[in-house]
């Protein structure tokens, strides 16, 4: 059984433990978007830790089976979703493909890599490592749909839980499931002294309006 609370907390513990997630409310990171952020998440770090990698693979598999039922293919989102997706596909014994951020500029010019001659038309679950606004994930979803796949939904390791992401997935009619999320992370970090009590309010403030928080932080 996919126990949301237990898994959310366990994944949060792992990500903090191996520093796949770093919290710096008083020395914020700058994202590619230009946003200032007290959190940085790099789930690729989990691949270097076999026991954590195995746990994530197993829990993504369970989540997919319980949320989406029977599927015929797994698709990773380039680049961080590729290794996670391949691991899940291996666990499920399913074909694996991946979606580029843009078509290849040479050769076949492919946007979707893998044997699409045998997978097109299959019911597919998309694997992503992280959901922020959902924009890149949903670009992959639309590419798969345009190629003739039936997208059952998307599964990811972690979500910041932004309202804009929830709305974007809703508008795209794409259900999604994540192993952990920002609220669970902050709860675990606070309870286990990964952050000072005085910083909890800052972290919650950022989550409510990251763009505005960034403007204040950089002023």
UniProtKB/TrEMBL annotation:
**Family, similarity comment:** Belongs to the purine/pyrimidine phosphoribosyltransferase family. PyrE subfamily.
- Where is orotate bound in this sequence? 132
Q: In which pathway does it act?
A: Pyrimidine metabolism; UMP biosynthesis via de novo pathway; UMP from orotate: step 1/2
Matching entries from InterPro entries are given as: OPRT, Or_phspho_trans_dom, PRTase-like, PRTase_dom
> Source gene?
pyrE
Which keywords has UniProt assigned to this entry? Glycosyltransferase, Magnesium, Pyrimidine biosynthesis, Transferase
Q: What is this protein called?
A: Orotate phosphoribosyltransferase
Q: Where's the Phosphoribosyltransferase domain?
A: 69-159
Keyword hit for Glycosyltransferase: yes
Q: Where does 5-phospho-alpha-D-ribose 1-diphosphate bind?
A: 100, 104, 106, 128-136
One GO molecular-function entry = orotate phosphoribosyltransferase activity
């Amino acid at each position: 059984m996919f126990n949301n609370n237990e898994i959310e907390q366990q994944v949060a513990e792992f990500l903090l433990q191996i520093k796949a997630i770093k919290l710096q409310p008083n020395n914020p990171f700058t994202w590619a978007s230009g946003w200032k952020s007290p959190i940085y998440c790099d789930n690729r770090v989990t691949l270097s830790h076999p026991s954590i990698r195995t746990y994530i693979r197993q829990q993504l598999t369970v989540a997919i089976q319980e949320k989406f039922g029977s599927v015929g293919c797994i698709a990773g989102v380039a680049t961080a979703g590729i290794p996670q997706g391949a691991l899940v596909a291996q666990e499920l014994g399913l074909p694996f493909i991946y979606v580029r951020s843009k078509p290849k500029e040479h050769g076949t010019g492919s946007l979707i890599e893998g044997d699409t001659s045998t997978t097109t038309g299959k019911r597919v679950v998309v694997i992503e490592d992280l959901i922020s606004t959902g924009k890149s994930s949903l670009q992959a979803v639309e590419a798969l749909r345009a190629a003739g796949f039936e997208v059952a939904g998307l599964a990811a390791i972690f979500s910041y839980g932004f309202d804009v992401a929830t709305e974007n997935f809703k508008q795209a009619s794409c259900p999604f499931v994540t192993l952990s999320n920002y609220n669970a992370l902050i709860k675990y970090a606070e309870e286990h002294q990964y952050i000072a009590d005085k910083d909890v309010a800052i972290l919650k403030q950022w989550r409510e309006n990251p763009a505005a928080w960034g403007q204040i932080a950089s002023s």
